[in-house]
Fold this sequence. Notes:
It is a single chain. This protein is of the alpha+beta class. It has three domains: 3-77 and 115-186 and 279-367, FAD/NAD(P)-binding domain (3-Layer(bba) Sandwich); 79-111 and 191-276, Alpha-Beta Plaits; 381-474, 3-Layer(aba) Sandwich (Glutaredoxin), CATH 3.40.30. Helix content is 24%, strand content 28%. The protein has helices spanning 22-33, 58-67, 70-76, 117-130, 175-180, 248-258, 307-326, 336-357, 408-412, 468-474, and strands spanning 11-18, 38-42, 55-56, 78-79, 83-87, 90-95, 113-114, 135-137, 141-147, 150-155, 161-168, 184-188, 194-201, 209-212, 221-225, 232-237, 266-275, 278-282, 286-287, 290-292, 298-299, 381-382, 402-403, 406-407, 417-422, 434-439, 448-452, 458-462. Helix 1 runs parallel beside helix 4 (117-130), helix 1 runs parallel beside helix 7 and helix 7 (307-326) runs antiparallel to helix 8. The longest helix is centred in the last third of the chain and has 22 residues, at 336-357. It is globular and about 70 Å long. The model has no long low-confidence stretch (mean pLDDT 93).
Amino acid sequence: MEFNSVKETADVTDVLIVGAGPTGLALAVDLTRRGVRALVVERADRLFPGSRGKGLQPRTLEIFDDLGVLDAVRASAGPYPIGVIWQDGQRKGEQRMSDATEATEAAPYNEPWMLPQWRTQEILRARLEELGGEVVFGRELVGIAQDPEGVTASFATGAPVRARYAVAGDGGRSTVRRALGIGMTGESVDPNPMLVADVRITVLDRDVIHMFPPTDTEGFLAVFPLAGTEDFQVAAQFPEGTDADLTLDGIREVFAARTHLSPEAVTEVRWASDFRPRAALADRFREGRVFLAGDAAHIHSPAGGQGLNTSIQDAYNLGWKLGAVLRGGADPSLLDTYEEERLPNAAAMLGLTTRVHRGEVRRGAATHQLGLGYRVSSLTVETREGLPQDALHAGDRAPDGPHAGRRLFDAFRGPHWTLLTVGTDTPLPTLATVRTLHIPPYEAYGQGIFLIRPDGYTAWAGTTTTGLTTHATTLGLA
């Protein structure tokens, strides 16, 4: 079938994105700024209304900086406050939600920020519309078919959509994943069900997280003040086999039983959900011209705040590759590296969240996602020998740092490659669509030459340019 053969009866786009969650919206922003037509369709009639994925890790803040939404995020978000442990109506201690790490020139964001998921989505949607993109609501996908030229998606109502590629960002119960016949392997992280709800509470201060430890008869309950709102998020655990009551009366009963406050302190329930913590990974992240991203590809326990953040990294990895193929003339085989790079990273994050949930690992540097990278990717070439394990390698995240009165991140920002020399005047080859940048010796990099991908990871590193042009050619840059 020719790509345009159904043009008269179908909407046509470059990339169809199913699901207007953080994954789909971030991907749409990235594609749209690259000049790629991206259509986001959402089954519901509005954006997801809850706070569920409320933690933004430092690596996600860096990505949001590049996507042009960090100022809006920081205007609404705030750092996680200290946790106060209550017992019998008295404050009995304090607990930090995450081990502190020091901000550095190389890593300016050193702690997670709290922002309700619904607000993150609003910010991404506003950015998408600013760039000329849109979200179409009330579009329930009921079928998807592929041919050598593209993808055709059909919906419960309205015209089909014809696209070069499609991306499933439609969550853990992904319709697209099931339609493709892709399995998902997982395990229960905890047999005890959880409740999470956004509520209004009249008598708790908003300067701390209120933590009520479990007793012999009741599970734990925690109350998080949601930055930038008047709401609190209540999280509560129940005994195995119990069904949580998501009504106002049900949540009031749980709140009063586990705290020293009256049920009437909860004045309103704005959103509520229950779930059983689970970890699961899709068997593959691609089927032909369709890709899985976010919860459609991996489901995390909420512990450690990795789910939404790993999903954003999926979008960030896939966005520049789709852009390179659709607008930059790159070989379509580049898209094979999406699964190659993201599946093992998602698997590692699933293991981490499970260990955090079970109390085996503290939140901190391990959960900030700054140490994740692609050292073993086929897109990565390291020509230097004998590097210490903790030195910057090809495949690692490219550090920030000072540059000409500004920041390296300012120079990296945007949908382009960067060729960076550090402490060397070695003549550089001319590479198409690649910006060059020269800085003096800088400890975070060491001395050398670094080819930095559009998603901020180093693709090639060396002390001379030997082999650089060859690798750049394989990437479509020379």
